[in-house]
Amino acid sequence: EVQLVESGGGLVQPGGSLRLSCAASGFTFGTYDMCWVLQALGKGPAWVSGINSGGGSIYYADSVKGRFTISRDNAKNMLYLQMNSLKPEDTAVYYCEGMGYWGQGTQVTVSS
Predict the structure, then answer these.
(1) What whole-number distance in Å separates Cα of residue 46 and Cα of residue 32?
(2) Cβ distance 101 to 11 under 8 Å?
């Protein structure tokens, strides 16, 4: 059974940082491209960042470029998203996605 479990969300002040993690199981993690997707309240999903299976190709939405860093540890079946200089508009539920599967999401709230 494919499972993706996100963690690391929370409430943070503008300018703060969070590190999201996604634990993957049930498939050969190291052979699949992965990405992070967000969904803000009342809006559709928006792609945030992607990383290829080997970690050598990385992509970001313009809105997070220079602030967020995606990474993966294939030995641990883990995907990460380091989020710095957070803004209120980053508030959303963040999901990791791979193989067409999504996790349950982790809420990120940026507010003073």
Answers:
(1) 20
(2) no
